[in-house]
Design a protein that fits this description.
Spore Coat Polysaccharide Biosynthesis Protein SpsA, Chain A, 3 domains, 25% strand, 26 strands, 6-stranded antiparallel sheet, Jelly Rolls
Amino acid sequence: MKLQSIQLPRTGICTEENMYFRRKGTIDFTWDKDYMIMFLDSTVSFDTYFNGCSAEKWFKYTSVKKITINIHVKGQFRITLMRKEKSLDGSITKFLSEETFGEPEVEGTYSFPFVSESNNGMFCFQLLCLSEKGIVYDGFYDGEVDEKDIRYVKIALDICTYRREIFVKKNVQSLDKHIMRNENSPMKGHLEIFVQDNASTLKKEDIVINDQIHLVQNKNVGGAGGFTRGMIEASSRKNSLKLTHMLVMDDDVIVNPDSFYRTFVILSLLKEEYKDAFIGGAMLRLDKQYIQTENGARWNKGYLISHKSGLNLLDVDACLYNEFEEKTEFNAWWYCAFPIDVISDTNLPLPIFIRGDDVEYGLRNLTRLILMNGICVWHEPFENKYSSSMYYYIFRNRLIDNSIHKMKYKRKDFIRDLREQVKMEIIYYRYKNADLLMDGVNDFFNGIDWFMKQDGQALHQSIMSRGYKLQDINDLPMPFSYPAYEQSCRMPEPSRRQRAWRKFTYNGILLPSKKKEDNEMPVVAPAFTARPVNFYRVEKALNYDYCSRKGFVTQKSLKETIRLLYKMKKISIKSRYMYKRTVKEYEVRGQELMTLDFWKNYLDI
């Protein structure tokens, strides 16, 4: 059974060559080709993120008994089969076999089995061209399996969208072309797409291009509401459509259709003891496509641990590090597949609008997460996406998730964490954000009955109206300067002595602001990754969102600082008698928010 195809870089998806192959010598390859031309003594290696084979995981989790590489070429070559794994000193390469094959000017397909005493790490191979000219057309890793071990799999893809028409149309059209209408795809007839449009801006004729694509106009109840609506729609047709698995995926990602195929094959070949496993996709940066943001994660009571963050996937050592498994508690819903039977009338996600719904559902249901190189999406990095309204949900949803799952998150730790975040927003003069942080906590203390009565859409609109609104830089009351933005990003941290003084003066808020000369650059701080050093003794600053090229201005106010510190003190006092009571209430009654009856009322269906 074909496990994974050899992939080549292409425009519209990814053009980082060393994520696909590494070449030496004279090789002719361009992005508009689906093959490469090699000349005498040139070599190409496939020990890469997309074209290495995660042998350790294929053998551990699936019924694969033997792995073979199949190569379709024209010309004479020498192939070297290898196994690579990471070690403390770098990486270890074991050469498994080497063979000369093919003839000049003759086209053919050749197979070479991997025979190794160990399956740790990655299987990969290298080709050396022995002809004056050779062509590599394609190839794939094949797995030997018994017919009786192949499971029937049909995936329901759940996409929740809000004004992301370009991304959604592109991904749906790509899947329609490569899978749904592709007679050669083993996945043809094994994929149904459910698109939940929270903005009701998608036109049916633009998105429903075959009868396996379903569009639902949904209330704007955030990602949680959109994904849940998709789960309800798919699970209600589970029997009629013969669906076996759910795959939730963000609307604003770039994805290679081969990720779906690899997911499909893993699910088809899972061993009995792993039949309930989740399959996760890594998040890679959209701007730097070779940088990994997360590959599985731990909630850790809200002190989030993103596994293998920052890896440069152009390097073979990083790809080999990815092969190591670490304890995971969830996979974010930019790409996550699981058995559709997990969904039931009493086991739906929480209606927390955004931020934390995927975490909570993973904590509740995930027993095993399988992650493999090559299964991923590209997503805009979070530090490039600023949203003031997010601050309302940060602590409210963290408290709800921790409470329902009986996490030992002590009141003193919660107050310390909240106080620290409020302090940082005060230091950045973002007083609205500090208010939203504490408003979210107060709404948590309002209890589950208050929560169940809320109209999620109306509540979110209220939150949006209370936060900072990104504006065109030409409409702001202070000038934008890109050199000033760069200077702010590169500004060095203060010395230890300076930090002590700045802490004593609340980062200079208690001191007079420094006067700026007319010819001095304005203060332009990054909205998402601001630091206290950017605001020390500054009167006002332009907070710049790099992704949208917009910003907002904040100004120092001692009056607002005092007001917010007093509000924080009141929450601290309130928590002494409300914290344990509310935590217990969510722990005992949290399941009331997970039922189909609740969701039907919440979604007006």
